[in-house]
Design goal:
about 140 residues, alpha+beta, single chain, about 30% helix
Length: about 140
Amino acid sequence: MNIELERILENRNVKPTAMRLLVLQLLKNKSVAVSLTDLEDHFVKSDRTTLYRTLITFVKNHIAHKIDDGTGVTKYALCEEGCHCAIETDLHVHFHCNSCNETICMPNNKIPHVDIPNDFTAVEASLVVKGVCNKCNT
């Protein structure tokens, strides 16, 4: 397996098992977010629970982030290096194509700061722009 992938996992204190390395490689090669079903379809002989636990481990350790794009299906994509999924600095906009149903990270477009009352605590934030992607727009 790829030494770079092992390094990514080890830097986040995640043991580099075979399945974690395979899922990480798939996420790294994808330009769009993937669902658990997408992983199941790709890794046909793998156990759904193992794939789900891998995704949860990646999210918990800031290797990947969850995306609620409004479709009712959670999607996952790799975090940028150094990401801690902090609302103030790391979260970015996602684009969901209404035509092909793909969701794309837009890391150069950070979620704008929102002032909330002092006695409120923000835990999550997301911003999804919906429309038609460049592949479907031709």
